[in-house]
Specification:
Layout (H helix, E strand, L loop, with lengths): L6 E5 L44 H7 L8 E4 L7 H9 L3 H6 L1 H15 L3 E3 L15 E4 L3 E4 L6 H4 L11 H14 L4 E7 L1 H10 L7 H9 L1 H25 L3 E5 L8 H7 L1 H14 L5 E4 L7 H5 L5 E3 L6 H8 L4 E5 L9 H12 L1
Parallel strand pairs: 3-6, 6-7, 7-8, 8-9, 9-10
Antiparallel strand pairs: 1-2, 1-10, 4-5
Helix pairs in contact: 4-6, 6-9, 7-9, 9-11
Bound molecules: coproporphyrinogen III.
The site of coproporphyrinogen III has 22 residues, from strand 5.
Pathway: Porphyrin-containing compound metabolism; protoporphyrin-IX biosynthesis; coproporphyrinogen-III from 5-aminolevulinate: step 4/4; Porphyrin-containing compound metabolism; chlorophyll biosynthesis
GO molecular function, one term: uroporphyrinogen decarboxylase activity
EC number: 4.1.1.37
């Protein structure tokens, strides 16, 4: 999906949709006092069992029978909401908005309060964990993400260190509060970038449309790229477990730029690192559904399934029924309304959603 546009996302496509849930949510978010609170204080073990009271989205993601498909929107919080725009005027720095517990909670709950979706995604970014393993970055208004010291040599690798989860305490705190705020009425969604997608930023130093440096590196410095991707796989696995232990019901893995690779290159440079993550997380948190999304994934669906994730996020270039046929019944799918539909009149949008899940 395009980053700037929200996408309506539906899991488990065999039932009818119902965009508003019956749950009533009327309380204001609870914001804790601004004391330092480190991950160890709210460490809870990953759940190893399922429960009938698990939220609908979690059940659908696991492939359990559900009465209707759950609905949520990717890029749920954001610029289309005036309440968010007002908050962003008061706190113009994206880093501040996404790294301050009370702001994260407030922004994450804005769409929940407005629409009661079945999933509440934490307001964060795939780059948020980078400084916690040695890669500082900025988000510039026009250029977007900028990495201060891109890594493309052995020398650059020296700045990497194991992820320090204490530096991400605001993520853990926010998930814990979100979990409490939405009660059992929605799934709390955590997310991460896949190693290849994160590496595009770390190597190129900023957003790219050509991926020239990193694709060249696959041939000119494969050992450096492999070392970087392995480091990312371990750090991201630790970060996922931390998110689950802090309260995330479900984790979405964004390999947004995986579709920029020819499929055989994706097999070599993305898939093994996603598989490593799946294996570590499934070992520690066997009941947590993992969702894998790639932009432009029509050429990769079967390969995505082979990573062992529980749900495949289809983008809108893949017909839902075709995707379902290609993936088989034993895996859940989510997707895949074209975000541009959100600019259509409501009846047209409703019709498109009905068509997708019909
Ligand atoms: C602009 C940008 C950022 N970070 C990134 C970009 C894209 C740059 C490019 O095209 O290469 C990188 C990024 N961040 C995210 C992804 C994966 C999702 C995708 O493929 O679109 C990607 C590829 C998750 C995210 N990044 C963000 C969310 C939002 C979570 C939610 O509320 O749904 C997600 C899932 C939030 C984010 N992250 C960022 C901003 C400015 C915002 C939104 C804040 C705003 O609108 O003012 C910084």
């Amino acid at each position: 999906m395009g980053f700037c546009s929200p996408t309506i996302v539906v899991c488990s496509a065999s039932f009818f949709i119902h965009l508003a849930s019956n749950s009533i949510f009327s309380t204001r978010p609870f914001f804790p006092p601004k004391t330092k609170c480190f991950s160890k204080k709210f460490h809870v073990a990953c759940s190893t069992s399922t429960s009938p009271s698990d939220p609908l989205l979690v059940k659908a993601a696991r492939g359990d029978p559900v009465s209707r498909p759950p609905a949520w929107m990717m890029r749920q919080a954001g610029r289309y909401m005036s309440v968010y725009r007002k908050l962003a005027e008061r706190y113009p720095s994206f880093r501040e908005r996404s790294e301050t517990t009370d702001l994260i909670v407030e922004i994450s709950l804005q769409p929940w309060e407005a629409f009661h979706p079945d999933g509440v995604i934490i307001f964060s970014d795939i780059l948020t964990p980078l400084p916690a393993f040695g890669v500082p970055f900025d988000i510039e208004e026009v250029r977007g993400p900028v990495i201060q010291s891109p890594i493309y040599s052995e020398e650059g690798l020296k700045s990497l260190h194991p992820i320090d989860l204490e530096k991400l305490h605001f993520v853990g705190e926010s998930l814990r509060i979100l979990r409490r705020e939405v009660g059992g009425n929605a799934a709390v969604l955590g997310f991460v970038g896949a190693p290849w997608t994160i590496a595009t930023y770390i190597v190129e130093g900023c957003t790219t449309r050509t991926y020239t440096t990193i694709k060249t590196m696959c041939h000119t410095a494969p050992h450096v790229l492999r070392a970087l991707l392995s480091h990312l796989a371990q750090a991201i696995s630790d970060y996922i477990v931390f998110q689950v232990e802090s309260g995330a019901h479900c984790i979405q893995i964004f390999d947004s730029w995986g579709g920029q690779l020819p499929p055989d290159m994706w097999e070599r440079w993305s898939r093994p690192y996603i598989e490593e993550i799946v294996s570590i997380v499934k070992n520690k948190c066997p009941q947590t559904p993992l969702v894998l999304y790639i932009n432009g994934n029509g050429g990769l669906l079967e390969r995505m399934k082979a990573t062992g994730v529980d749900v495949i996020g289809l983008d809108w270039t893949v017909d839902m029924e075709d995707g379902r046929k290609r993936l088989g019944k034993e895996i859940s799918v989510q997707g895949n309304v074209d975000p541009a539909c959100l600019f259509s009149p409501l009846p047209a949008l409703t019709e498109e959603i009905q068509r997708e899940i019909g």
